[in-house]
Amino acid sequence: MEKNILTIDEFAKYTGWSKSYIYKKTSDGTLKFSKPLGKTIFFSREWVDSFLLSNTTSTTQELESKAATFVTLKKGGAK
After folding, report:
1. What DSSP assignment string belongs to 37-65?
2. Predicted model pTM
3. Residue 44 contacts residue 36 (beta carbons within 8 Å)
4. What is the DSSP letter of 34?
5. Region at 54 (left for phi over 0; alpha for psi -120 to 50; beta for the rest)
6. Within a 10 A sphere around the Cβ of 27, how many other Cβ atoms?
7. Could you say which of 2, 10, 28, 47 has the lowest number of CB atoms within 10 Å?
């Protein structure tokens, strides 16, 4: 069973990022974390997964499909 809460060590292992990089990103506000007792920081695995999959790029096929739809709609509305 997967843990829902990650420590910084688990987060570093999960992402392959160094702990110093993670601390830097928590300090600059990029990474969302919890610090319930003022010392140890924790991360929600759900948030981490969402963050890691954010800012995705479209495939060539997706871009071509969007372009074709745009051109079709533009032609129909430009009378």
Report:
1. TSS--EEEHHHHHHHHT-SPPPPHHHHHH
2. 0.69
3. no
4. B
5. beta
6. 9
7. 2
Q: Would you say 31 and 25 are in contact if contact means Cβ atoms under 8 Å apart?
A: yes
CA atoms of 8 and 19, how far apart (whole Å): 7
State the residue for tokens 């790029």: 57
Going by pLDDT thresholds of 50, 70 and 90, the confidence category of residue 73 is confident
pLDDT digits (tens, 9 = 90+) for 11-34: 999 999 999 999 999 999 999 999
Q: Which residue has the tokens 């695995």?
A: 45
Q: Which amino acid is at 30?
A: T
